[in-house]
Amino acid sequence: MQKQDSTHRQKGQHLTSLERGKVAGFRQAGKSNRWIAAEIGVCPQTINNEIKRGTVDQVKKSNGKRVYHRQYLPEAAQARYETARLSCHRPDKFASVQVFLAWYVQRAKQDKWSPDASIGYAKRHKLFTPEELVCASTLYQYIDDQRLEIRNIDLLEKTKRKTSHQHHTKAKRLAGRSIEERPKVVERRRQFGHWEMDTIVGKRNGKESVILTLIERKTRCQLLRLIEGRDADSVSYALRGIKREWGACIKTITADNGPEFTALNTAFAGTETEIFYAHPYTSCDRGTNEAHNRMIRQDFPKGMSLDDISPSQVQATQDRLNQLPRKQQGYCTPQQNFEAEARRVRRMAQ
Questions:
Q1: Which of 39, 134, 146, 230 could connect to 138 by a Cys-Cys bridge, CB 3.0–4.6 Å?
Q2: pLDDT of the residue at 168
Q3: What is the DSSP string of 116-137?
Q4: Which residues contact 3 (CB under 8 A, 6 or more apart)?
Q5: CB neighbours of 270 closer than 8 A, spacing ≥ 6?
Q6: What is the DSSP letter of 330?
Q7: 3-state secondary structure of 312
Q8: What is the mean pLDDT of the segment spanning 259-268?
Q9: How far apart are the C-alpha atoms of 286 and 261, rounded to whole Å?
Q10: Is 139 exposed, middle or buried (0-12, 13-18, 19+ CB in 10 A)?
């Protein structure tokens, strides 16, 4: 009988119940342990250990007498394996980390902090001992298992991530200089003062208030303004106030090609701020802006009329997001890093 090609198995993979059945069948056919190992794709010692652990005492009657013999049983081997697996995991810390979990639930509900941000902040500020904390994957597992008051639907990024897919774009004329002309230093996020800009609409009827969003790429600090409409005049009016306060901190702005941004060069005339426009229908050119817009949508979901909100509500959302610890910021907040960079800019200007 010609021996079949051995099956390729991942190193360290445990035997399955099906493979244990094959072991029993091959032994009944008189095959050696080495032959069985090659057939299944494991080392011979694995088969030796498996047979030793799965061999049990059997009793049968012959001529009215009990006859004892030893036999490998795949069912017994599988049961012993499953029992051993129950005791090889780390002990569950859930009961011993209740103080931290209560703190996380409060942060998630009040400030919409992610599990990773909560753990990173707690570690950075030494709010709990290592024994009182769990890692991010364990915290996510608690949420998956519905052991907390937080659910997956409450986790913005976990429910919004999508697989990449192609988009068929149409030709559209850029409103100004292309993002391809933007200095490469902007992409590296090492220099302060480079911003992305967008607007968030409510009912999309073109007549109601919108939220103007600007985000600084290095610190991820955001400026939000409630403006009267999605038009160039409303945007320019809001930018005049932003220029007066933060003009020295704005080196470049990257916007999309919406009609509300066609007058940006005029709005920043006489300043050193450079304006660039993303490729048409390519939101990934402003990935930071797009990701943070989803966070803003937690407070102002699509379809909600923005005529019904106040500037103070928008300010509260800005403060919440700017005080959210970020992993890429070493679990400091965008506001802390932005204020430090702004002070440095002012010192250099003196």
A1: 134
A2: 43
A3: HHHHHHHHHTT-S-GGG---HH
A4: 35, 38, 39
A5: none
A6: T
A7: helix
A8: 91
A9: 14
A10: buried
Residue with token string 């020295």: 248
Q: How many CB atoms lie within 10 A of CB 148?
A: 18
Pick left, alpha or beta for residue 12 (phi over 0 → left; psi -120 to 50 → alpha; otherwise beta). left
Token pair in block for residue 68: 């004892």
Ramachandran angles phi, psi of 59, nearest 5°: -125, 130
Contacts of 309 (CB under 8 A, 6+ apart): 209, 226, 300
Q: Among 234, 270, 231, 278, which residue's Cα sits nearest to residue 253?
A: 278
pTM score, two decimals? 0.65
Give me the pLDDT at residue 167, please. Answer: 46
Secondary structure E strands in the chain? 55-62, 65-72, 194-200, 210-216, 222-227, 252-255, 274-277
* Cα–chain center distance at 142: 16
Label residues 61-88 b or e (16+ Cβ within 10 Å = b).
eeeeeeeeeeebebeebbeebeeeeeee
Band (102; pLDDT cuts 50, 70, 90):
very high
